[in-house]
Every structure is written in structure tokens, then in C-alpha cells.
Write a structure and sequence with these properties.
By secondary structure, this protein is α/β, with parallel strands linked by helices. Among the domains are: 147 residues, 3-Layer(aba) Sandwich (Rossmann fold); 73 residues, Rna Polymerase Sigma Factor, Chain: A (Orthogonal Bundle), CATH 1.10.1740.10. Helix content is 48%, strand content 15%. It contains 18 helices and eleven strands. Helix 4 runs parallel beside helix 5. Bound molecules: nicotinamide-adenine-dinucleotide (NAD) and magnesium ion. The site of nicotinamide-adenine-dinucleotide (NAD) has 25 residues, from helix 1 and helix 6.
């Protein structure tokens, strides 16, 4: 029997890497659905190559175009659209696994739907967990979904944790669980992004092109900018707290510019376990697709002699204030991380559009957070409301800061 899979965000960097691993194991996996935002050409190409049963475009017009094009060539692919289409393919009975690789808040509802349908959720879309941590984890527990981290650091931590851990590592929100396995702390590594050594003055002048050129990883634009501001590590700190049911103080962030060690787990006997590998997302993707087995991924083998050295540095919270903002938001709890995520998405978009400077990104987030207080989460509607409020306010802040600029 083939394992059915839906890939949310199939045209992106994670989506394409997932298809690359699946291609090497086509006797094991069947692509049931592929989704994208509005890149008709890209999704059309994938549909012709993979003939999934369903193709979903979030954008209605794009869906119409795709449907017409596929009809012309008699491709047996049913085209759906909008949020309805995305959630439909996330819960199909013939789908066992859902790769959640939509970028940003747009991924929340489809990813949550997959968890509520009890699927194996391969989580790349960290923003979904940052927005809705408690609620998302509760859905995973309640519906006995399997949650496997794709983010390379979290996948590494998962691999280094005691082997008694279930795929949903955070068991029933029990912070003692991880400690009872003898774990003393988690070490989350960060490359430091393209501007690791830049002064504050240099950071002031950087362009979107420079910010999107990560030294070790080839990724989508949003996560590339997040890596450059180090908000990515802040979001990952929050993601790790939820995935492993722990607190920010249990996690230490260490700069490791080569991105060879993907993260580490320290035990009370002094042992520190690390997961190493070349920086290529096909490794965590293959790990999660086949867990608990191992399958090949196509990633080149690690040559330690060629690498020769692994360096480590402390993080600098002054030049990268986003990290501190994320940590404080997690400590504040409730929808504070929803607000943080929304303000960050608005600020990153404005920077990518050339509307404001790189160094204005943390200012937009800080100002937004200072005007809105997080609430204890009781429903998904509350999260969506606070997300919308934060976006509105952050857009106003962007306008104000760019006018005064
Ligand atoms: P990307 O920009 O390359 O791809 C994003 C995908 O999401 C595309 O298929 C796009 O069509 C789809 N999408 C965008 N907006 C949408 C919308 N409004 N509605 C529906 N679909 C939409 O991004 P990526 O680099 O592949 O990252 C995807 C996710 O994985 C992000 O959450 C990112 O943080 C996470 N992640 C990525 C990497 C990486 O190496 N790229 C590593 C770790 C985690
Ligand atoms: Mg990562």
C-alpha cells in the first residue's frame, strides 16, 4: 500500500524538496494533493509531472486558469480553490501525511485541520505553531495526530531526545516529561544569517537582495529575511517550547555559522548529543516521511575533513533585538506570540517591498506589541481576531515610521 500525502505549499522551497525525496521512493508514497498560492505555471508543471488527484490554488482566479490549462491537455486532476480547498485536501481519508509547508499565517487553518483529522503532520510552517501553540498542541493530543518537526533544528532535537519520546514529543503538556528522560537543556543552533558580523550602522543599509542571500541555506524570501533579523531563531524558540513542552529558559541559543550541527540535547550525566549533516532540508524531510525508519534523501555525505572546523559564538541581542522580542512574547503567553508573528509578517513584507529599512523591522514589532496585549486563548477565532488586529496596527506603524523616515 502506498502512503498518501498532501503537500501544502508544494511550489515552495520545502514543497519542492519534499517532492525530490518522494521521487526517490515513488514505490512508497503517492502524492494525492498539491497546493500553491497563485503560481499557476509552477503548479501546472507539478500537476503534469505528478498527476495528483487534487490541485488547490488559494487564489480563485489562479485556480480557474489552472483548471482551464489542465482541461486542455486532459490531465485527470481536480482543481479546487481557496481556504476550503486547502482544508479539504488536508483531511482527505486517503491522505495519511500532510506536509505543512505554506509560509506564514496562511498555513494555520489547513495545518490545524490536518491535526484535527489525526494525520501525520510534517511541520515546516512554524508560524502556525507560533500563532496558536496551545490550541494546536491540544488538537494534536486530542485527535492523536503525529507531529514531526521539519525545521532542521527541531528535527535534530527530536533525533537527540531520549528514544522513549513519541512523535508528538510534547506529551499532554507535561513539562516534566522531557526532564524525566535525563535531559538538562536543549541547545538550539543558529547560523547567524548573512549579517552575523555586521555593525548596527551596516545593518541600517542592507537591501532585500542581501537579506535573501543566506550563506548556507536556499529558502523562501520570508524565512530568509527572518534568518537575517534572527526573528527566525525567535520563532524557533517558541516552536521548540511547544513541540517539546518546555520553557524558553530551558533552551540556550548558540551561534554556529557553518550550519553543520543542527542542534543538540544535553543530559544530566554530561553527555551532549548532536545531529550533524550537510545543510540540506531533504534530510529532515526524509527523516519525518519515513519515521521511525530511515530512507535515503539524496543529500551529499558529510565530509568532516573538508569541513575541518566547527565554530561557536554567543548571540548578540543588541544587534538582533527580534530574538529578545520573541522570547518575551513567549513568556507573556496567550496571543502575544500571535501578535508578534503578525507584526513580523507585515514588517518583513514592507521591507521586501522597499518601503522601509531592515532595522525598522524590530521597531514595528516592538511598537505593535506595546499597543496590544495578548489574551488567554480559548478559541481559534480569538487567534484570528488578534492576528487581524495586530496586522492592522502594524500596517499603521509601518506607515508612520516610513513617513517620519
Ligand atoms: P516558500 O516561499 O518557498 O514557499 C511557500 C509556499 O507557500 C509556496 O508553495 C506558496 O505558493 C505557498 N503560499 C504562500 N502564501 C500562501 C497563501 N496565502 N495561501 C496558500 N499558500 C500560500 O517558503 P519555504 O521556504 O518553502 O517555507 C515554507 C515554510 O517552511 C515556512 O513556514 C518556513 O518558515 C518553513 N521552513 C522553511 C525552511 C527552508 O529551508 N525553506 C526551513 C525550515 C522551515
Ligand atoms: Mg530552522
Amino acid at each position: 500500500m502506498l502512503t498518501g500525502i498532501t503537500i501544502l505549499g508544494a511550489t515552495g522551497s520545502i514543497g519542492l524538496n519534499t517532492l525530490s525525496v518522494i521521487q526517490q521512493h515513488s514505490h512508497e508514497f503517492e502524492v494525492i494533493a498539491l497546493t500553491a498560492h497563485r503560481q499557476v505555471d509552477k503548479l501546472e508543471k507539478l500537476c503534469l509531472e505528478w498527476t495528483p488527484r487534487f490541485a488547490v490554488m488559494a487564489d480563485e482566479d489562479a485556480a480557474c486558469q489552472l483548471e482551464q490549462r489542465l482541461k486542455k491537455v486532459n490531465a485527470p486532476v481536480q482543481v479546487l480553490s481557496g481556504l476550503e480547498g486547502l482544508t479539504f485536501v488536508a483531511r482527505l481519508p486517503e491522505v495519511e501525511m500532510v506536509m505543512a509547508a505554506i509560509v506564514g499565517s496562511a498555513g494555520l487553518l489547513p495545518t490545524l485541520t490536518a491535526a484535527q483529522a489525526g494525520k501525520r503532520v510534517l511541520l515546516a510552517n512554524k508560524e502556525a505553531l507560533v500563532m496558536s501553540g496551545q490550541l494546536f498542541m491540544e488538537a494534536v493530543w486530542q485527535h492523536q495526530a503525529e507531529l514531526l518537526p521539519i525545521d532542521s533544528e527541531h528535527n535534530a532535537i527530536f533525533q537527540c531526545l531520549p528514544n522513549t519520546q513519541t512523535p508528538t514529543v510534547a506529551v499532554e503538556n507535561n513539562p516534566e516529561k522531557i526532564q524525566s528522560g535525563g535531559v538538562r537543556r536543549i541547545l538550539l543552533t543558529a547560523s547567524g544569517g548573512p549579517f552575523r558580523t555586521y555593525s548596527l550602522e551596516q545593518l541600517h543599509e542592507v537591501t532585500p537582495e542581501q537579506a535573501c542571500a543566506h550563506p548556507n541555506w536556499k529558502m523562501g524570501k520570508k524565512i530568509s529575511v527572518d534568518s537575517a533579523t534572527m526573528m527566525n531563531k525567535g520563532l524557533e524558540l517558541i516552536e521548540a517550547c511547544w513541540l517539546f513542552s518546555t520553557e524558553p529558559d530551558f533552551i540556550e541559543i548558540v551561534l554556529h555559522p557553518q550550519s553543520i550541527i543542527h542542534s543538540l540535547v544535553e543530559y544530566i550525566d554530561g553527555s551532549v548529543l548532536a545531529q550533524l549533516g550537510n545543510p540540506d532540508m531533504r534530510t529532515p524531510i526524509a527523516h519525518a516521511l519515513a519515521w521511525p525508519r530511515r530512507i535515503s534523501s539524496g543529500v551529499s555525505r558529510l565530509n568532516l575533513v573538508d569541513i575541518a572546523r566547527l565554530d561557536f559564538e554567543a548571540v548578540d541581542f543588541t544587534r538582533f533585538p527580534c530574538l529578545q522580542l520573541a522570547k518575551e512574547a513567549m513568556l507573556a503567553g496567550g496571543t502575544t506570540t500571535t501578535i508578534l508573528n503578525a507584526a513580523n509578517e507585515v514588517a518583513v513584507q514592507a521591507f521586501l517591498q522597499g518601503l522601509m529599512r531592515f532595522t525598522t523591522i524590530p521597531k514595528v514589532i516592538e511598537t505593535t506589541l506595546s499597543h496590544l496585549s495578548g489574551r488567554i486563548v480559548t478559541s481559534i477565532d480569538m487567534i484570528l481576531e488578534d492576528d487581524a488586529h495586530a496586522r492592522e496596527l502594524a500596517s499603521e506603524v509601518v506607515n508612520r515610521l516610513t513617513i517620519n523616515h
